[in-house]
Design brief:
The protein is globular, with a radius of gyration of 26 Å. By secondary structure, it is mostly beta strands. It contains nine helices and 41 strands.
Length: 744
């Protein structure tokens, strides 16, 4: 295959010569005409007149561009949200996006071993929680299955915003449960005042994790350049006690596991790396930019009972060494034109083209390849219809080609076409603020025939195409007062079922399940309320969110018992003679559901001699989910509460976080001896974390930070109730992360 090599010219002394990022030629060639068109739209940007680029008038224009680039973020609305940035984000950054956000109120980490962590927002994740980078989706396979990681390196994020509650108006049905918006600056939105180089180095004692990330931002005239590289590598994790919970395992399979380890979880090592290059061209009325990036991650799935794959006979191996080897290449284009009209302030566009694939390997042999080729585009018109009325009209499209190839291709190759139009209007009636939103969407799914294996027997399954038209509406009202505010959100959000929910049929190697889809699934509708109180009483600060969701046709993955694979014709069984030949059967089902919960935080800053910025706060959150048949929604988080103490002394800042997670006994159900019983639950635990940071500086050379994160100091055994693998491995034991950040 022809490849295009993007080489930094030696005439750019601020960039590192020889930095080589390779992409398929077809992937890049379509961007070149757009770059040439930009030179026609912004001819003044190619001027080499130094006086003009540094004139006062030019500086004023650039300041305006930097401020108005904010429409990138969907959280300019009244939705309940929280933001991580700066030093706080640096300290919380972790190996996965879910681990980075797990201490945010209303957010949990849906793990699948230490190398996969997806944000679970108010009990919603997967195809209900959309992860976006710079306004567009990540377009990996993380929404399809809990064992698929995201293609996000949180170490490079400048800001991460979490939208708690439906974010479907701007982002589509995939955000019916919430959204995570990551800003990484790979396409510069303003000209930097000087060249800046940032490097981070980290080491974790638990599993010898080594991390490095370096970024460069510079300019030449009216052109800004960005480049970054990153890598991380780790060994098997250390844990307290045994990896497999034998009591829970026996309850599931009726026999104990023959494979177990003490003090560590096998096959949990990982290696990831990647990088990007970006460029933006600025003119007097706007900017246009592009970036190319790549990401690779090879990680193991914790060891468990083996099973044979596809058509097989005889005895299965003792244990599968299952790994995921994923790769993504991506091209992004972004631009914004600022207009002099009051009724139309700006026009912005985003285009992203992604090529993603991952292989699921068993003992080094490829069993299945997942491919996801996606083009996503967004065009937005920011307008002001009146002095008190402003908003955004947007067009949104996603063209997706998904395929699964190999022995365990449990989802057919499918073309998915999504088109949407949305409108968001904000009315400012100080002290009142009202926001209205609506979205019309059309989703088409066209699957190809799929060969399905039943032991030595196979047949071709033909799946029906589907066409659905979900609609979403929102209303938010905020009332400001002298000591705080009250905000009420009302949502009617809808989503179409995803490809795996409709068409799954076959064994899934990494999750150790035999999955069945449901071709008759209908549109899922979420009716939601959220009331948010923000209050200050003297020095006391408080925040309280109360939410209630009523879901119609809620789609969930139901445990339906065991499936014997090592037989002439695989079939359901009541008991498993050998766990190495059995899979848990899951089926995507649909019924009404209801959710409710809260997030609360109260903080008090105090003056203590010798300390600065001392603040003590308490926090708590909870979500409950019930299906219409009065059974519990599976894999939800239990209630948690805790204490956070923050303080500074000299050049040091630190915090102590004490978290108590209650036991989760409200689990999903499974069949047992002709009865429906609860799945095994998880025990309560206490977790203690300490973070320390010290500012460092060498005048006229660099500034930076030294930091130490001590997590799970008491070495508590933590079984994550949101994880499919909670019976196979606990979370990391005690670990110390030592890091350094340097800004040149």
């Amino acid at each position: 295959m022809l490849h295009y090599s993007c080489q930094v010219p030696e005439t750019s002394p601020s960039l590192e010569p020889g930095l080589d990022v390779r992409f398929p030629f077809k992937f890049t060639r379509r961007a070149l005409p757009l770059a040439l068109a930009a030179s026609a739209i912004f001819p003044e940007a190619y001027s080499a007149e130094t006086e003009r680029s540094s004139s006062p008038g030019s500086s004023i224009v650039l300041d305006a561009i930097e401020v108005q680039a904010a429409p990138d973020s969907p959280t300019n609305s009244l939705d309940p949200s929280s933001t991580l940035s700066g030093k706080e984000l640096m300290l919380k950054s972790a190996a996965t996006l879910g681990a980075t956000l797990q201490n945010e109120l209303g957010v949990a980490n849906a793990t699948f071993g230490p190398n996969v962590g997806l944000p679970l927002i108010r009990g919603q994740h997967g195809p209900r929680t959309r992860v976006m980078v710079n306004g567009l989706g990540t377009h990996d396979a993380s929404a399809m299955s809990p064992d698929h990681g995201t293609t996000v390196e949180s170490l490079l994020a400048k800001e991460i915003k979490v939208l708690r509650g439906p974010a479907t108006i701007r982002n589509g049905g995939g955000a019916i449960g919430g959204a995570v918006e990551i800003t990484d600056g790979r396409i510069p939105e303003h000209l930097p005042t000087k060249t800046k180089v940032t490097t981070q180095l980290r080491f974790n004692t638990n599993h010898d994790e080594r991390i490095m990330a370096t970024e460069l931002l510079t300019k030449a005239g009216q052109v800004a350049f960005h480049a970054d590289v990153h890598g991380r590598e780790s060994n098997n994790i250390h844990i307290p006690g045994m990896a497999i919970d034998q009591d829970a395992f026996t309850q599931l399979f009726y026999v104990p596991s023959p494979n177990n380890t003490h003090g560590y979880t096998g096959n949990t090592n990982a290696h990831s790396d990647g990088g990007s290059m970006g460029i933006s061209l600025f003119g007097e009325m706007g900017y246009v930019g592009m970036s190319i990036s790549r990401y690779s991650n090879n990680y193991g799935i914790p060891l468990g009972p083996a099973h044979c794959h596809g058509p097989c006979t005889g005895n299965a191996a003792e244990a599968d060494n299952v790994r995921i080897d994923l790769h993504q290449e991506r091209l992004d284009l972004k631009g914004e034109l600022f207009l002099p009209w009051e009724w139309l302030e700006s026009i912005s566009f985003r285009i992203g083209k992604s090529r993603y694939h991952h292989d699921e390997l068993s003992n080094g042999i490829q069993q299945t390849r997942f491919q996801n080729d996606v083009t996503e585009s967004r065009l937005e018109f920011t307008h002001a219809l009146h002095a008190r009325v402003s908003g955004t009209l947007g067009l949104h499209g996603i063209d997706r080609e998904f395929s699964a190839l190999g022995i365990e291709a449990f989802v057919p190759s499918t073309s998915i076409d999504t088109k949407g139009v949305y409108l968001i209007e904000t009315i400012d009636l100080n002290p009142w603020q009202v926001e209205l939103g609506l979205r019309k969407e059309q989703v088409k799914l066209d699957p190809s025939p799929q060969t399905v294996y039943f032991g030595p027997i196979s047949h071709t399954e033909v799946f029906p195409a589907r066409k659905l038209a979900p609609e979403s509406y929102t209303l938010a009202v905020k009332r400001m007062h002298s000591t705080g505010s009250i905000t009420v959100n009302r949502w009617i959000a809808k989503r179409a079922p995803d490809v795996q929910e409709l068409y799954a049929l076959g064994p899934h190697l990494a999750t150790r399940t035999y999955d069945f889809g449901n071709q008759d699934l209908d549109i899922e509708t979420l009716n939601g309320w959220d009331i948010r109180f923000q209050q200050r009483l003297g020095k006391l600060e408080g925040n309280l969110n109360l939410f209630k969701y009523s879901a119609k046709n809620y789609i969930y993955q139901q445990n339906e018992g065991l499936y014997e694979t090592d037989a002439a014709i695989p079939h359901p069984v009541m008991r498993c003679a050998n766990p190495a030949t059995c899979l848990i059967t899951t089926r995507h089902s649909q019924q009404d559901a209801r959710f409710h919960g809260y997030e609360a935080e109260m903080g008090l800053p105090l003056h203590i001699p010798g300390l600065r910025k001392f603040r003590a706060s308490v926090f708590a959150d909870q979500v409950r989910g019930m299906l219409d048949d009065d059974t519990h929604v599976p894999r939800l988080t239990p209630a948690r509460h805790g204490l956070l103490i923050q303080a500074g002394m000299g050049k040091w800042d630190g915090e102590i976080r004490l978290t108590h997670m209650r036991a989760q006994k409200r689990t999903g159900t499974m069949p047992m001896n002709d009865e429906i019983v609860l799945e095994p639950g998880t025990d309560s635990y206490h977790k203690v974390d300490i973070a320390l940071r010290r500012s460092i500086e060498v005048p006229n050379w660099f500034t930076g930070d030294l930091f130490i994160n001590m997590r799970n100091i008491t070495n508590a055994e933590i079984r994550n109730s949101t994880s499919f693998l909670r019976y196979y491995t606990p979370e990391l034991g005690h670990n110390i992360e030592i890091g350094m950040r340097i800004d040149l």
